[in-house]
Design brief:
By secondary structure, the protein is mainly α. The chain contains 16 helices and 2 strands.
């Protein structure tokens, strides 16, 4: 256990600068852009909160994606599962407050089942996670497209509080994102499951020899990831007041969640990283979007610039770590 503890301390020391660097870059870029474009009002508390609120959905998905990447896996089904969650929630509720709890329970149950299927395909059937989760995502999208062509149902006003309620000036979704990030960080750093997850991702063979049931750990990571996608679907249904089969796909939550996780210092090889780096990567994306909007950059050019920034950030991190491939 002393060797594991020493590895954990070393891992924490390696990760600490990553969130700080990303947050500093976000604050600097956002501030400079706001001042240069004469939109200093964006630097107010309301402007900063608006940036954070804009990335809540991506942040929720990315928290779940962090778990599977730490386990040396990946999940490309999350975007379509977000759509499933949003559509199922609004379709089951049909504007009836009495159906809120059953709809939420159904969405989370479906998400857990999808996560379990992903985990079993990866562990028991030993299918490459890229192929397995992509296939599951395509099945979900096909079922959605065959059943729904437009917005489905509606959520009651009482459910919309999830997206539009606030404590003082801070919206519920922003509070919820940071609370969930804190819970995820606690699980990863202070529980046996967290230690087993890092061990499974860092050295699967060694973890198995140490008695860790790596298949169960990976399966659990996939279930957590899918539950996070389901929560995102519920949030988007609340925000949009309904669900649509394209809401997850158009949000590009699969690829962008992977990008922010890797930018945050979690390596694709598994076993190294954490949720605070992921959250810092999400904030960086939010600050970039806000800066591009202030400058007036075209939406397509935004994607090109963001792609270039992702490549540069990951290359810089890979060079800094010298020996780990991100």
């Amino acid at each position: 256990m002393s060797a594991i503890a020493a590895a954990g301390r070393s891992r924490r020391r390696a990760e600490l600068p990553v969130p700080a660097i990303l947050i500093a870059a976000s604050v600097t870029g956002f501030t400079v852009t706001a001042l240069a474009t004469g939109q200093s009002a964006q630097l107010s508390a309301d402007g900063v909160i608006a940036v954070l609120e804009r990335v809540v959905a991506l942040g929720l998905v990315a928290l779940g994606q962090t778990f599977v990447i730490l386990a040396r896996s990946i999940d490309l089904s999350v975007a379509n599962l977000v759509s499933v969650g949003a559509v199922m929630a609004s379709w089951l509720m049909q504007g009836d407050p009495a159906m809120m709890l059953p709809a939420v329970a159904a969405v989370l149950a479906i998400s857990a089942v999808v996560g379990a299927i992903n985990g079993l395909l990866v562990t028991r059937f030993e299918i490459n996670p890229l192929i397995a989760t992509l296939g599951v995502g395509l099945v979900l999208q096909g079922l959605l497209s065959a059943s729904f062509q437009n917005f489905a149902g509606a959520v009651p006003e009482s459910f919309q509080v999830l997206a539009y309620g606030q404590v003082g000036p801070v919206p519920y979704p922003v509070i919820g994102l940071f609370v969930l990030a804190g819970c995820a960080a606690f699980v990863l750093r202070s529980t046996r499951f967290g230690a087993h997850l890092y061990a499974t991702g860092g050295n699967p063979d060694g973890a198995r020899l140490a008695g860790i049931r790596t298949h169960r750990v990976t399966l659990a990571a996939h279930v957590i990831c899918s539950l996070a996608a389901g929560l995102t679907g519920l949030y988007l249904a609340s925000r949009l007041r309904s669900g649509a089969p394209w809401v997850g796909r158009d949000g590009i939550y699969d690829l962008e969640s992977i990008a922010v996780v890797v930018i945050g210092g979690t390596i694709l090889a598994g076993g190294r990283g954490g949720v605070w780096g992921t959250l810092a990567g999400v904030i960086l994306f939010g600050a970039l979007d806000a800066a591009f909007t202030m400058i007036g950059i075209d939406a397509f050019v935004k994607q090109v610039l963001r792609g270039g920034i992702v490549i540069a950030a990951v290359a810089a991190y890979a060079y800094r770590t010298k020996g780990h491939v991100a």
